[in-house]
Amino acid sequence: MRQLIVGSRKSKLALIQTKWVLAELKKAGIQNPIHIREIETKGDKNLNVSLPKLGGGGVFLEEIEKDLLDERIDFAVHSLKDIPVELPGGLEVTSIPVREDPRDALLNRDGQSLMELPEGAVIGTSSLRRAAQLMRQRPDVQTKWIRGPIDSRIDQMLAGDFDAIVLAMAGLNRLGIGQNFIAECLPSDTFVPAMGQGALAIESREADEEVRGMLMKINDEATEKAVITERAFLSSFDEGEQAPIGGYAYIDEGVIYLHGMVIDAKGQKVVEHEASGKDPMTLAQEVADVLIDRGALDIIAEVKQEMQ
Question: What is the pLDDT of residues 221-231, one digit of tens each?
């Protein structure tokens, strides 16, 4: 029986996600011994630099994907929102398990919702998309860059460095921490998540049919269809991964619903559209075309210029 090696970032959340995948594979009947190889990425080494300046979510992948291509590992577990639409040649997203809660959450010490926070409140976030949407709803607050593991961010908030922070519900749920400080789960229709948020992606080599067969046993078709729609929407925008852009799709009775949004860094210019359909690519292009007609590419270019 073939022994397998799975690659994972070293963070507590990444390892929990990887171990969850291994448990799901075991439930699905995979008996192969699987060992975890912990890999430090550029994104993990440079916590003093914002993600957009480092190069976006792809900074968490380079070292792991090199190990995949060099056959030092057999597959890798990622947060899907960290994966660029275009992968290196020879690699593929082989399996997408069932999705966790895709929403963002606002955390603070006093249980205050976004609208209840005092004027001038300082909110910590590492996301341009989140910062822009916070400014859109509360232009009087300040957004301040924060990096590091989830538990470290909560500690910084409790120490008084921030009045509130915004984190993904999925990470809080998987870690089982911070629940007492969740003041508000931000609704996905008014605070649009990142494409793929809450979903995991299992990446492997295209040529490895044996591993593909194993990983497909835990693929969730509804989650896969939804995130394919979201990623197709993202791929319609040049530099989209570096811009405040959100997209959330869900499936209801076989119909895909997609809400797409592009917003400037200050939350003052926003274009958004929601539509439904059966085909992920057609629906994604329809929503993207509406936003492009309304000036989405100009907003993205403006944000990119401000980041330089």
Answer: 999 999 999 99
Return the pLDDT at 44: 61
- pTM of full prediction above 0.70: yes
Q: What is the 3-state secondary structure (H, E, C) of 90-131?
A: CEEEEECCCCCCCCEEEECCCCCCHHHCCCCCEEEECCHHHH
State both tokens at 268: 């003052």
* Residues 123-132 pLDDT 10s: 999 899 999 9
Residue 244, both tokens: 């405040």
Asked if the model's pLDDT at residue 46 lies above 80, the reply is no
Is 240 a residue whose pLDDT tops 70? no
CA dist., res. 237 & res. 245, Å (int) = 9
The Cα–Cα gap between 237 and 260 comes to 12
Identify the pLDDT of residue 186. Answer: 98
Q: Tell which residue, 261, 246, 101, 108, has the closest CA to residue 184.
A: 108
Radius of gyration of the chain (CA): 19
Clarify whether 82 is annotated catalytic.
yes
Residue found under tokens 């085909």? 279
What SS3 state is found at 72?
coil
Pair 279, 290: CB distance under 8 Å: no
Question: In whole angstroms, what separates CA 127 from the centre of its chain?
Answer: 10
Instruction: Choose, from 44, 74, 82, 293, the residue flagged as catalytic.
Output: 82
In whole angstroms, give the CA distance from residue 273 to residue 249.
12
Q: What is the DSSP string of 84-97?
A: -SSPPTTEEEEE--
